[in-house]
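Work through this protein:
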Amino acid sequence: MNIGGFVSASGGIDQAFHRAYTNEFLVPMFFIGSPQSWNLPVLNDVQIGQIQKAKKETGITQSYAHALYLANLASPEKSITDKAVKALTTTMQNGEKIGLSGVIFHLGSHKGTSTEEGLKRVAQGMRLVLNASPGQTHLIMENSVAQKDKVGGNFQEIGYVLDLLDHDPRATVCLDTCHTFASGYDYKDSDSLSMLLTEVDKYIGFDRLECLHVNDSQGALDSHIDRHANFGEGNITPEGFRALLLHPNIIDKPMIMEIPGVNGEGPSIEDKKILLSILK
């Protein structure tokens, strides 16, 4: 299985690859710059060389960046969406320089307007980002917990954005297990799991489901609480993880752990061992 994790890029993105390798992660995910700042770095030739060297030394071929948390393409405030487009474009351009598989982002909140309007703004912003960052790096929508004014809380909404983008091949999707569970899908229930997979297939297509964030959920089923938990410490059962992650349409997808970690410092090799033991 293609299991990875969210790793720190402290000391340089090249170090993120080495941390991933130390923890036996096949797929690292990291921030390029601070997740709470609009001022994102532009990678220079020295940094790019260090990253390419680290990739060669570790043999890691797939990697993802998580976009900054401030980005809200669904916002009705043009100043916010302009900043989000600029930040996502910078991250995508950096990603193309270092051969990232993709940049994963949250669609955001429509801020009291409407879901449809918010989704249209997301599609418009994504088109601007994709046009300004040509290449191979994908722009990846992550499903959110369905709550308040957030958009992208179900796969029909995400599919609507894909339709508005004419299914641009570089626009893909990340399924977060905590977010989906907290939004009401119980993986251990065969009917609920079948409904989820049917929706993914109908509105997105498994070819567009690029990767997963694999997290347990502190919140109960359908709680609409966005709180990630370590495996075995949340409310998703081992049977549920096995039913979803071992499904033929899912098992070969990159699976990125995005949890507190047993040591409290993010996912590690110990968390990977726990996940693999659950999936036996």
Remarks:
- The chain is about 40% helix and 15% strand.
- Residues 3-278 form a domain with the TIM Barrel fold (CATH 3.20.20.150).
- The chain has a mean pLDDT of 97.
